[in-house]
Amino acid sequence: MEKFDVHILGCGSALPTMRHLATSQVVNVREKLFMVDCGEGTQVQLRRSRLGFGRLNHIFISHLHGDHCFGLIGLISTFGMLERTADLHIYSHPDLQHLLAPQLDFFCKGMPYKVVFHPFNPCERTVIYDDRSVSVETIPLCHRIPTCGFLFREKPTPNHIRRDMIDFYQIPTYMRNRIKNGEDYVTEDGTVVPNSRLTVPSAPPRAYAYCSDTLYQPKMVGQIEGVDLLFHEATFASSELARARKTFHSTASQAAQIARDAKVKRLVIGHFSARYDDERALLEEAAAVFPETILASENLTLSL
Predict the structure, then answer these.
(1) Where are the beta strands (DSSP E) in 141-285?
(2) Is 285 found in the same domain as 180?
(3) pLDDT value, residue 173
(4) Are residues 209 and 256 in the same domain?
(5) In this predicted structure, what is the pLDDT of residue 180?
(6) Active-site residue identified among 5, 37, 67, 278
């Protein structure tokens, strides 16, 4: 099975602490790296992850609060000092380009690569990236400013050829890709060998949903139903429900309700408030609703 990993670089909320860094993740789909949010400290965490700066070409920004984008200008500048030549693609609310343009002009003159902005409306569900391996779709969320999550859907892979059947029927090389993609094989005497005899199904495509900074939003359930992994913010415990509502955030219990109702396979909670010195209470609260819950932590890698 090809790689589909989520690397947590930072899982704290707006107020920096000694325990958690601001929000950022890297999603590795078949060795293509996609960054989700870029808070302060992201480039240091990227170094620690040993993922490599050169393979990161796409960054998705959920919303324009500082703990999700203050690390961008530093990362862009570092890419320039590393003599990057490949374009860097940034997907975000249109205002980000206007905010970064003067900083790029001042701090990043003469960079050997281009920063390409791809604006989108966070309030609309739409596919904002698509290639042969994966698509990325926005998940409209409810926060104090326009905000969205991101749904990464792996593309199906061709069936796996049964080598014993290939040898038995002496199937020529030029036919093998066609058989992988579903064709039957016709022997020289006209016998049709069904594809099901020649191949075994590939693993089902996987999906990852990232939902940070949102009020409890049950209407997202249909969009993320059945995903292999859901990251959902759990900024507060239920004892701080009033605070969660006021600040447009979710509790650990609410995150677990979303996971349960969407029938996801696993839930990882993060974006922890600085008020918690120990997030085990948040884990216990979520796991009481959805047992397949784990806590996010810096440098945690989750494989789908």
Answers:
(1) 148-154, 160-161, 185-186, 192-193, 199-200, 207-211, 229-233, 267-270
(2) no
(3) 79
(4) yes
(5) 75
(6) 67
User: Which residue segment(s) compose the domain that 171 sits in?
Assistant: 160-200
The low-confidence residues of the chain, meaning pLDDT below 50, are: none
Q: How far apart are the first and last CA of the chain?
A: 10
pLDDT of residue 178: 81
Regarding whether 230 and 100 lie in a shared domain, the answer is: yes
169 neighbors 193 (Cβ within 8 angstroms): yes
Each residue's pLDDT tens digit, 199-244? 787 788 999 999 999 999 999 999 999 999 999 999 999 999 999 9
The whole-number pLDDT of residue 102 equals 94
Closest CA to 147 of 233, 84, 88, 230: 233
Kindly tell me the sign of the dihedral angle through the C-alpha atoms of 246, 247, 248, 252: negative
What pTM value is reported for the model? 0.91
Same domain? For 8 and 67 the reply is yes
Residue-wise DSSP of 274-301: TT-S-THHHHHHHHTT-SSEEE--TT-E
105 catalytic per annotation: no
